[in-house]
Amino acid sequence: MDLFTSVVEEHLQHKNFSSVLIPHRKAERDLLEEWADGFVDRDGKLVKEFQTTFNSSFWEIYLFSVFKYYGFSVDWSSPTPDFSISDGKSEIIIEAVTANSAQGKPNEWDKTFNVEEIEGLRRFKNLNIEAIIRLSNSIFSKVQLYNDKYRKLDHVKGKPFVLAVAPFEQPYFNHQYDRPIKALLYDYYVDEDAYLDNPDKFPNGSPRINLGFVEKDNGAEIQLGLFNNHSMSEVSAIVFSCVATWGKLSAMSENPIREIEVNSIWATPHNGVLENRICSSGDHRETVSDGLQVFHNPYARYPLDPSFFRSERVVQLYFDKMTGKWIHEGAQNCLYFRQVINYPRVK
What we know:
Order of helices and strands: HHHHEEEHHEHEHEEEEHEEEEEE
Radius of gyration: 20 Å
Number of domains: 1
Oligomer: single chain
Distance between the termini: 35 Å
Helix content: 25-40%
Shape: globular
Largest sheet: 8 strands, mixed
Structural class: alpha+beta
Strand order of the largest sheet: 1-2-3-4-9-12-13-14
């Protein structure tokens, strides 16, 4: 699949697409085409959509590369939903969706890097609330599509239905890790701002609180805890990552033209203490599945077996009915954050 030969006029190209066409990104483009190798473009729109809207197509290609990494097989025989995959023992249905910016608000690529913008990153609540709102909109749109259409399809009936959600809803979305999605699904919010404002009050770190709801700009309330009851039992789990970005390609590829510095934060064994690592891409060790998180719905009509996505450094949150406890699997050894910086190579 030729993703980068233009099929649309230059003025119609998405800003992210045009930005990756520069010569020193060839190694990254080659890696993306490796990810896409074998992807079946069932409606013949993928290349055009990749070049004009970018993020949603990029997310689907990334997911497909993850499925190949796991060794899953993909059944392309039905036009919808996005993926029907099998691990050789069971089959699940996956629908991909991205959270995008609200009308009138900055897009994720609209970074100005001014003082006010950078200072805003020292506090997290505004970023997290915006993410919760946009994630909620995306999830509910796909749940409605499932109930209106997908659940009636023969190849979907009786199988776990998983939403794969990627956040591209605002500049610096990659700083959110799991704070907004956990709050939305379980009403479990880590209040980092409270700790930063008064660290002496919280000797054990940021407090965990229940917000109950968040408020949109128009005053409408979004209830949190979507997986705390049977109200969304049609969704078996949410697959999520805020580091499945072009930066992953930069961090994983060898660039002969530019020096790539990778700044990353990892939870480290055996107690999950966070460690900041700064190194070149040649010394950075990241797999395609690093940063992947799976949030299970304990009230799912068709539960997703945690073994399906189990892999080293993949985080899963699920309720173990045998022990009556929540399991936070993989949280002691995982990728939290990654940022890359390009420098000219010194000759």
